[in-house]
């Protein structure tokens, strides 16, 4: 089981955490929503929960709850900037498809 983080995603995550002034790392999870069924959730983590799994890559701690790990194992987190648009991108080997707007995926 592993989660990987690109150089650009690691730098962006570190900047966010430094600007925030606290936090263990980032929580990567899924929630039920959208056209395809599941959407990614990315938020700050201050405290670990009992079912959390901790991964560290490129100097960034990624925390995933046990239920989400089934859907996210092997995911690569990247950060891309294209003109005025920028954001984290997920390459998930478990995803079978995405909705047309790219907001949700299915497994």
For the structure shown, list the relevant keywords.
alpha/beta, 2 helices, 9 strands, 47% strand
Strand order of the largest sheet: 3-2-5-4
By CATH, the superfamily comes out as: HesB-like domain
Give the number of helices.
2
Unreliably modeled segments: none
**What is the overall silhouette?**
globular
Q: Which whole number gives the mean pLDDT?
A: 88
**Total domain modules:** 1
Strand coverage percent: over 45%
Q: Please describe the biggest sheet, giving its number of strands, its sense, and whether it closes into a barrel.
A: 4 strands, mixed
Record field, number of beta strands: 9
CATH architecture label: Sandwich
How far is the first residue's CA from the last residue's CA? 17 Å
Task: Name the helix and strand elements from N-terminus to C-terminus, one letter apiece.
Answer: EHEEEEHEEEE
Q: Output the structural class.
A: alpha/beta
According to CATH, the fold-level topology is: Hypothetical Protein Aq_1857, Chain: A
Provide the CATH top-level class: Mainly Beta
Radius of gyration: 14 Å
């Amino acid at each position: 089981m592993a989660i990987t983080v690109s150089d650009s995603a690691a730098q962006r995550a570190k900047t966010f955490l430094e600007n925030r002034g606290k936090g263990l790392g980032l929580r990567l999870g899924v929630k039920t929503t959208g056209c395809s069924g599941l959407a990614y959730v990315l938020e700050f983590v201050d405290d670990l929960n009992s079912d959390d799994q901790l991964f560290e890559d490129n100097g960034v701690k990624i925390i995933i709850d046990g239920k989400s790990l089934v859907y996210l194992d092997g995911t690569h987190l990247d950060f891309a900037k294209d003109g005025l648009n920028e954001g984290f991108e997920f390459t998930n080997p478990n995803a079978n498809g995405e909705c047309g707007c790219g907001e949700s995926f299915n497994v």
